[in-house]
Design a protein that fits this description.
about 180 residues, extended, alpha/beta, six-stranded mixed β-sheet
Length: about 180
């Protein structure tokens, strides 16, 4: 996406905006359908299913409240990987939120595999052994989530009795928790 500056008269503005309206309405329609699909997955969640929405956050800079000036120039950073997990627990749907903290600053395919393995094995398989199907939702950067490492990851999960459905929604709406 690029931010562009257009110059013109006030009289030209409605025509210019009107030209952009079909594209805007198409994107809006896609976003609404994706959002509805995501909401339907959660609302129709069965007792043997889980829904995971995960995402990297920006690297977080660690700082002390009353640090000396010299510490300002040598602050460490950490990577945060957040995941919301919806499951059936005692015949009701619950949402658990998790944050994995790492000192690895790269958003690489193997980093994602380790984070997802933690989410699936520690937050779902151990805590909710009844789960057999996991729907995973991501915004879908190809370098992180769409690669052969995910196929290996899926095979590993299937050996443990879990099936995974990947959902990549480029216009995914962040759900309020």
């Amino acid at each position: 996406m690029l931010k562009l500056t257009n110059e013109g008269t006030v009289e030209e503005a409605p025509s210019h905006l009107g030209d952009k309206m079909p594209s805007f309405l198409e994107n809006l329609s896609i976003k609404r359908k994706q959002h509805q699909f995501f909401e339907d997955c959660i609302s129709q969640l069965g007792p043997e299913e889980a829904v995971v929405q995960g995402d990297f956050t920006e690297n977080y800079t660690c700082c002390h409240q009353d640090e000396i000036q010299a510490a300002h120039w040598s602050q460490g950073q950490i990577t945060l990987f957040t995941a919301a997990v919806w499951v059936h627990d005692s015949s009701k749907r619950t949402c658990e939120t998790h944050c994995i903290i790492s000192d690895n600053h790269g958003y690489y395919k193997w980093t994602v595999s380790v984070f997802l393995d933690t989410v699936i094995s520690d937050f779902i398989a151990k805590k909710h052994p009844q789960v057999k199907m996991v729907d995973i939702f991501f915004d879908g950067p190809a370098s992180q989530f769409k690669n052969k490492y995910k196929a290996n990851f899926c095979c590993k999960l299937e050996r443990h009795g879990l099936k995974v459905r990947w959902n990549f929604l480029p216009l995914l709406i962040k759900r309020e928790l």
